[in-house]
Each structure stands twice: as C-alpha cells, then as structure tokens.
Write the structure tokens for this entry.
Amino acid sequence: MSQRVYLDWNATAPLRAEAREAVLAALDRPGNPSSVHAEGRAARHAVEEARQAVAALVGAEPAAVTLTSGGTEANALALTPALETAQDKEPRNRLLVSAIEHPSVQSGGSFAPDAVERVAVDGRGVVDLDDLKARLTRRPGRPLVSVMLANNETGVVQPIPEVARLTHEAGGLLHVDAVQAAGKIPIDIKALGADLLTLSAHKLGGPKGAGALVRRDETLHPARPLLRGGGQERGLRAGTENVAGIAGFGAAARAAARGLAEDGPRMAALRSQLERGIRALAPEAVIFGEGLDRLPNTTMFAVAGLKAETALIALDLDGIAVSSGSACSSGKVEPSHVLAAMGVEPALAASALRVSLGWTSAESDIERFLGAWKKLAESLGKLRRSIAA
Ligand code: PLP
C-alpha cells in the first residue's frame, strides 16, 4: 500500500522531531518543578526554557506567558469579566466575538450568555469593522473583544491592528486567538495591538494538550483563574505542570520560529499548485478567501453538487486525509458556522473541503491529492450529465 498523505494540518500538525525529543527527555526526568532539589530544579528549567521559546515566538515577555492544557483552556482563561491591572479592577461587562471564532471562543468563557454579542463578517470571511465600531459605540461599557488572527477553515487573516485600534478607542481590551496563525505567519503581540493572545502546541508541531495564554505584559491578568489551588503559573493556573507537554511545546515553538521564513513561501507555492490543479479539473470551484491575505497553507473550496462527507471518505480510502467544512465533533454533521456567517448557501457549504498543508508537505502530496481529485471531479461530471440527460 502506498504511503498516506496527510493534508489536515489545521486539525493538528504531526509532531516535530525536536518536540518528540524534548517530550521524551522530560518524561524521563523525575522532578516536580515546584521542588527545590536538583531534580525539581531540572524540571523547572525545562518549563522556563519552554516559556521563553513560546514568548519569543510572539514577541512577548516570558513572565507574561501562562502555560495551559491547550488553546481551549487559554481561551476560557482569557474570556473573563475579571481582567485586571493593579490600577484597574472594574470588571468587563460585554464580550464581543466575531461570528467565525472557534467554538471555545463562541462559548463566551465566563461571561453571562446575554453579555456576549457576535460581530458580523463579510462575504469574504473578514470581520466587519463597521459592525464592530457600531457595536462598540452604540453602548458604552467596558468591552472585551475577541477576534482570531487567522480563521481555521478559510485561513483568512483578520485585520487585527484595526480591530485593536477600534477596541482601545472604545476603552476595550482585545483578545486574539492566534492558534492557527502561529508557526505559519510571523506574530508580534505588540505590533498586533493584542492585550491577550492564545496559542496551542499541537498546531505548530508540539504535543496535543499544551498551550498558552500570552498577555501584553505581566500587569494585566485574570483575577479569577479557572483552576485554583497551588501557586503554579504565578497563581494563574494551579496544578503540577505538564512538564513533558510544555517542553515539547517549547521545542516546537523554537523550531517553528526558525523555519518560518522558509516554510511560509514554500507552503504558499504548493498551495498555488494545488489551487491551479483543483480549478483545472473543476473550473467552477469556489475557493474561499481567494485573493485575500490568507495563511499560506490553507485552501477551503467548494464545488456545487459534491457531497463533502462522501468525498472525504473517498479521499481517505485513497490514502489522503483532508477535512470537510462541517463539524462533527458531537457525532452529528453540522454545517460550518464560518461559511454560514459568510452567507454561503447551505448547499454549497455542504460541498466544502479543507486542504491544509504543513512544513513537510511536498509536491508529491499535491500530485497525489490532484490524482484523487480527478476521480471525484470526473464522477461529479458524470452525475451532472446523467441528471441533465
Ligand atoms: N482556536 C482555534 C482557532 C482552533 O483552530 C483550535 C483547534 O482546533 C482551538 C482554538 C483549540 O485549541 P486546542 O485544540 O489546543 O484546545
């Protein structure tokens, strides 16, 4: 059997060799990072080294990085009314999230459901700045705004510096979910103007189950941590640290930062080859976010009449892993909330496939995908002709 082709990197990236090595080394060390003896200090050293690498990836101070169990937890930690500095302890009373956020942001964290508002996106999947501005000015308050840096389905990069300007002018704070962007495009928390930023290890080649909430500086912090108990993570996240996961996260962050300048253009070139090939076989294909600032690795496309779930299974049987635009985490296939927010017709949305590449993707992977896509496009053509006859 020929080798499988993995083209679902936005779901999760394969573990980088550097991360694997760091995880295994950490698993073999006995110490608890809170212990003062040599074993404890060695574990502490691994955690702090990782914290530095994670901070460096996004231009932050290590002391402003809180290590968590992943992106979901970091989002939940960030989205709280109780965001304080020493000078400002008044709670946030509104949460504005874009309509294309990940479910962990859509859920609203610890805000009351009626304090959460959805900010519209336009038909291209870009956050609607006029809607954001109108919502921010319509009702004075102390808003927290959450807009992702790049969308996980379409890869469309959001205008975060403008979002930050509007948010700050209205006295708000900005949280940015950078889970999908990290390791694919350069990130600088200060240049973005973000107050809080979420990262996840497994999207950049680290292990699953590690992530971080990064703050613009140490002074801004959630006053009511999700996990209370021991004083780990400067009191912001109790519990003995997942040293192996964190060490792997750090190694992956370091490798991602090193590879960024080369990996980005290489993935973009492969993606162009992929999109040309998709179009050559199905000229009517809609490529979402085409022509916009997009992550270099992501293509989401749809061809009317194609059944995404059936195509996914056919591709899987052909040895190729991609994903569809719908979510089936609850066992029931739901249409993509991202495409729905963009106003995409449900019938077209039901045919959407997402192909996402990574740093080890090769031309041969694209060729294998296009070979399988040819069969799908041909059978779709036959189906259309039989309906028309
Ligand atoms: N945010 C975005 C944009 C994501 O794509 C994901 C994962 O798919 C998450 C958050 C959640 O991250 P994790 O899987 O580490 O909880």
